[in-house]
Design brief:
28% helix, Purple Acid Phosphatase, chain A, domain 2, five-stranded mixed sheet, globular, alpha/beta, 5'-nucleotidase,  domain 2, six-stranded mixed sheet, 2 domains, 15 helices
Length: 539
């Protein structure tokens, strides 16, 4: 009898042990968040340099291979997200957002937030092409007027179930949306990022019983860190906008008062990397995490199904043609064109000035794309597409010397930080002291600049080129003819003063076409940085 009881007790204990082990297995989960951002229409692989050698990296085909691999290996445990600025480039010029959004849908994106560049062709273009998405768009801080074309397209927040967890998603757009894009007046992004996030997080937690909160943001990594401190309920922030490559194992961790942590990750730009954040979760608590910025190099095969979607659009593009040859390398990196004189900026501005026969030409560094060092050799139509991916026309107008100086002060107000409004120039020389007081502009509640709060005094001298090639000091009372692009002329990048300029004329000529035609008339080119923007070095 004792033996029977002992055997029964053993069976009970063994059963309890197995049940307990199974419960532990159920509670211990792993979630894989795959994040991409600032793809900028780079559907095809990008040719870049590594160790001074040309290498191929990125492309949506490789992105799809990795996403699909994770989803197959860890079914029900993978959340693939995108954090905006998916558009620009030749596919945007020719197909608006259709090619990009259809390909992102095919490769398995589960949810996304938008970036400012989705609005570079105005609000109607993304409103139309977002209908090709099979994944939801989350925009928590965007306010729409009732007649907005985006009515019914955006979600303020949502819940996705993965790994047995209810994951609440919010999406945040840069408050500078209306300043740095063509979003129009029927849409605005609230600057109160923390307030908008906090309200939606509360709803996700209380009404929808979310276990984890993930923010998809297009506000830049510095704003992400401020957000994490202001809204401690956020578990993960997948970011974009600042093109920050957070390297493997170097994720930003913000400790919270209750002992929890908020992880901030971002995967660079142009699809060179895919971010992989693994979260080990026990119950509703993150017990461990690991971050990898996976470089999408040639060792990763391209997914055939995704390549087929890309090819269906690529086959409709005009074939690339050689138009000229550069005998020098061209530094088209974002950090260069947005913070100092660049030979490529000089070339573009010289072409604008010559074509329009103006005294001065100005071009915002944020309008020069490619983000790479272009090697000496042939230049093709594809190269021009990547350099000038926006449908900007050339606009001529008349400005006083005082107004020109205002523009230049605005241009250098963010130095030494790269800034899309940093101006590349032609027809003038200027000396800049970044140690002096920067300009500050006043913005309305929607982030639109409308007034100068502080003039700034970083521009130390300006001289304008005369007809004989010599330079004379800028005359603040004189009227100068100036060529700019249509984005700037509409007040983009904070140049609101251009909206009321005199003798304003939109030539109707696309800058892209003017540059391509000019280059096609030259056997070879060798643009240089000739000292027209001198930045005084600090001690």
């Amino acid at each position: 009898m004792k033996k029977t009881r002992s055997l029964h007790l053993f069976k009970v204990l063994a059963t309890l042990f197995l049940v307990g082990a199974c419960v532990a297995c159920v509670q211990a989960k792993s979630l894989y968040i795959l994040t991409s951002n600032d793809l900028h229409g780079q559907l095809e692989p990008l040719m870049t340099t590594r160790d001074n050698k040309p290498v191929e990296v990125g492309g949506f085909g490789r992105l799809a291979t990795v996403v699909k691999k994770y989803k197959k290996q860890y079914p029900g445990q993978v959340l693939a997200v995108n954090c905006g600025d998916s558009l620009t480039g030749k596919y945007f010029l020719h197909f608006r957002g259709e090619a990009t959004f259809k390909t992102l849908s095919a490769l398995g994106i589960d949810a996304a937030t938008l970036g400012n560049h989705e609005f570079d062709m105005g609000p109607e273009a993304p409103a139309e092409t977002l209908r090709h998405c099979t994944f939801p768009i989350v925009e928590t801080n965007i306010d729409l007027q009732p007649e907005s074309p985006f009515a019914g397209i955006f979600k303020k927040s949502m819940v996705i179930e993965r790994a047995g967890l209810r994951i609440g998603l919010i999406g945040l757009m840069t408050p500078h949306l209306t300043r740095i894009s063509q979003a129009g007046v029927k849409i605005s992004a609230s600057p109160d990022l923390a307030g908008a996030a906090r309200r939606e997080v509360r709803k996700l937690k209380n009404e929808h019983k979310a276990d984890l909160i993930v923010a998809l943001t297009h506000i830049g990594v510095e704003a992400d860190m401020k957000l994490a401190k202001a809204v401690p309920e956020l578990d993960v922030i997948c970011g974009g906008h600042s093109h920050t490559l957070i390297k493997t194992g170097q994720e930003i961790v913000i400790p919270q008062p209750d002992g929890r942590k908020t992880m901030i990750v971002q995967a660079g730009a142009r699809g060179k990397h895919l971010g992989v954040l693994k979260l080990d979760i026990d119950g509703k608590h993150i017990t461990n995490h690991a971050w990898e910025a996976l470089r999408l190099d040639a060792s990763i095969a391209r997914d055939p199904a995704t390549e087929a979607v890309i090819e269906s659009y690529r086959s409709k593009l005009p074939p690339p043609k050689k138009i000229t040859r550069t005998t020098v390398t061209l530094d088209c990196r974002t950090a260069t064109v947005r913070s100092r004189e660049a030979a490529i900026g000089n070339l573009i501005c010289d072409i604008m000035r010559e074509h329009c026969n103006t005294d001065i030409a100005l071009y915002n560094g944020g309008g020069i794309r490619g983000d790479r060092i272009m090697p000496a050799g042939p230049l093709t139509t594809d190269d021009v597409d990547s350099l000038l991916p926006f449908p900007n026309t050339i606009v001529t107008l008349h400005l006083t010397g005082a107004a020109v100086k205002h523009l230049l002060e605005q241009s250098v107000s963010m130095l030494p930080r790269p800034y899309g409004g940093f101006l590349q120039v032609a027809g003038l020389r200027m000396q800049v002291d970044p140690k002096k007081t920067p300009r500050i502009v006043q913005t309305d509640r929607n982030g639109r600049p409308y007034n100068i709060l502080r003039q700034g005094d970083r521009i130390q001298s300006v001289a304008v080129q005369t007809g004989d090639g010599s330079f004379k000091p800028l005359d603040i009372d004189k009227i100068y003819s100036v060529a700019v692009n249509s984005y700037m002329a509409k007040g983009g990048n904070g140049f609101f003063m251009l909206k009321t300029a005199r003798e304003r004329k939109d030539t109707g000529l696309f800058l892209h076409d003017v540059v391509e035609k000019y280059l096609g008339s030259k056997t070879e080119i060798a643009p240089v940085a000739d000292g027209r923007i001198e930045i005084i070095k600090g001690q």
